[in-house]
Specification:
about 280 residues, alpha+beta, Arc Repressor Mutant, subunit A, Glutaredoxin, 5-stranded mixed sheet, 5 strands, about 5% strand
């Protein structure tokens, strides 16, 4: 990696964000910075971070290999991440991944020969409301199907940059790495385009058959009794109703939790007796 004066200046700016004597705390953004230089964290990038921060290469390498956002091999212009965790998997995430893998001719953490697309499984993209979800360079494309994801990737390969479902316009992997290092996105449109939290679109699975009933988009009829208005999370129970689910000793059949009220304090049967 060719370390330019600009890179050194950026590294010094990152270090200056932290208290004196705490420069090692700058390692995470520093790794994003060197990743922005070559598209992945190279051995030279690790050596640079170690030298600037006064760490060993082993210490830097241990961090770089722990976090999945730091890539240890050349990454394409667009990192396409397909969530295959539970919510997305149930709604067709595996189908999305399988189609992209077949069409691109690559597997997990592999890059197309033209260096445009790197494909990966993602354990969770923190957008379960909009499953199945795909991100491109960490920008969200919600409610994907195999067909829509194929169209998205096809557009990327054709040199287009489809607008994400929400958030800023798409940029390259190197550009997003620099932003993750803590530097401002210089594009004028980035700060003014895209809602951060759009209205939830209609959820569909890979076959377009997902019902709205019982979801936050179309809650079940009894949702008024739930803790989150209009949602479907944890039901609110009165003390009396909660107590009725326990046995006479106040102990649930399936566990050891006890119901305790001001009027009727109940201690779990396994509790340590108080000293007399």
């Amino acid at each position: 990696m060719a370390i330019t004066d600009e890179t050194l200046t950026a590294a010094q700016e990152i270090i200056a964000r932290y208290p004196e004597g705490r420069s090692r705390s700058a390692l995470l953004p520093m790794l994003h910075l060197v990743q922005a230089e070559e598209g992945y964290v190279t051995p030279r990038g690790i050596a640079f971070c170690a030298d600037v921060l006064g760490l060993t290469k082993a210490e830097v390498g241990a961090v770089a290999t722990f976090y999945t956002m730091y890539k240890r091999r050349p990454t394409g212009e667009y990192l396409v991440s397909v969530c295959t965790n539970l919510a997305c998997q149930i709604l067709g995430g595996e189908d999305v991944y399988a189609r992209l893998s077949k069409e691109l001719g690559v597997g997990h953490d592999e890059t197309t020969p033209d260096s445009v697309i790197t494909l990966e499984h993602a354990e969770c993209l923190a957008a379960c409301d909009y499953a199945p979800v795909v991100t491109v360079n960490y920008e969200f494309y919600d409610n994907q199907t195999p067909a829509s994801a194929s169209g998205l990737v096809g557009a990327l390969q054709a040199g287009e940059r489809p607008m994400p479902t929400r958030g800023a316009p798409l940029c390259s992997f190197r550009e997003i790495s620099r932003q993750l290092a803590g530097f401002h996105d210089p594009r004028r449109a980035a700060a003014h385009t895209g809602p951060a939290h759009p209205d939830a679109p209609r959820p569909v699975d890979s076959r377009g058959e997902q019902s709205l009933t019982g979801t936050d988009v179309g809650p079940a009829s009894e949702a008024a009794d739930y803790a989150v208005p209009g949602g479907a999370t944890e039901r609110v129970l009165t003390d009396a109703a909660a107590a009725s689910t326990y046995d006479a000793d106040g102990i649930a059949d399936a566990g050891t939790a006890a119901v305790t009220t001001a009027e009727n304090p109940v201690r779990p049967s396994h509790a340590i007796p108080e000293e007399s």
